[in-house]
Amino acid sequence: MQKTMIETEGLTKVFTLPAEEIVAVDGVDLKIAEGDFVSLMGPSGSGKTTLLDLLGCLDSISSGRLTVFGQDVSQVGEDDLVAVRRGRIGFVFQEFLLLPELTAIENVELPITFARMPRDRGRALGLLEKVGLGGRANHLPKELSGGERQRVAIARSLAASPSLLLADEPTGNLDTANSREIWSVFERLNGQDGLTIIVATHDEKLGSRADRVVHLVDGRITG
Questions:
Q1: Non-local CB neighbours of 83 within 8 Å, separated by 6+ positions
Q2: Which single residue of 40, 111, 151, 189 could bond 159 by disulfide (Cβ 3.0 to 4.6 Å)?
Q3: DSSP codes, the chain
Q4: Strands 89-92 and 164-168: what pairing?
Q5: 208: buried, middle or exposed (CB in 10 Å: 19+, 13-18, 0-12)?
């Protein structure tokens, strides 16, 4: 039996504005097991990004229950959320967020540096090779295509050996061919390495390739 990695019950996130309250995530019940490959799909404003942020401990919940790696984080503060996600959750975003003055391999090494772990150039190169960019290790971001930059970002997200990878619209800025390649990278990481992956995407063709699809509308799971 697969071990549960994430579980939510009535998970809710409300943003309070001067004139109104916006319920971005509304009573979500969800269970993610180790080794799952899940896509979160829905129109713009459906709550995909907010839900992903909550599952990744990037933001606190308003109500309900959230358990991550067996730890109830429903009522914890920011410092505790940081401790839960540090080194255990990798993130990939629509914007590549690479430092332009650093080479591909130096960008991959950044999380290792921030975590004050011993520098390991061989491991960083191995991660670039895993995403098909071993030959581009010493290139700057401006010398890489959009798809290559996103693959560097994926390699960087793996630097601290996370057991969970969260990706928010990772193909949103890419053409069809590069989008397919990025999705293939996710499939290899999940199938060959057993990495648990949750991807928020509006691309129905790509999203349907995940092992499991969760549809969101107005912050609620509809299927």
A1: none
A2: 111
A3: -PPEEEEEEEEEEEEE-SS-EEEEEEEEEEEEETT-EEEEE--TTSSHHHHHHHHTTSS--SEEEEEETTEE-TT--HHHHHHHHTTTEEEE-SS----TTS-HHHHHHHHHHHTTPPP-HHHHHHHHHHTT-GGGTT--GGGS-HHHHHHHHHHHHTTT--SEEEEESTTTTS-HHHHHHHHHHHHHHHHHH--EEEEEES-HHHHTTSSEEEEEETTEE--
A4: parallel
A5: exposed
Token pair of 173, please? 């800025």
Written as six digits, the tokens of 134 are 């071993």
What is the tens place of the pLDDT at every residue in 142-192? 999 999 999 999 999 999 899 999 999 999 989 999 999 999 999 999 999
Question: Which tokens belong to 210?
Answer: 């995940």
pTM of the model: 0.93
| Cα–Cα nearest to 152, from 194, 187, 181, 118 | 181
Cα gap 156→185, rounded to integer Å: 13
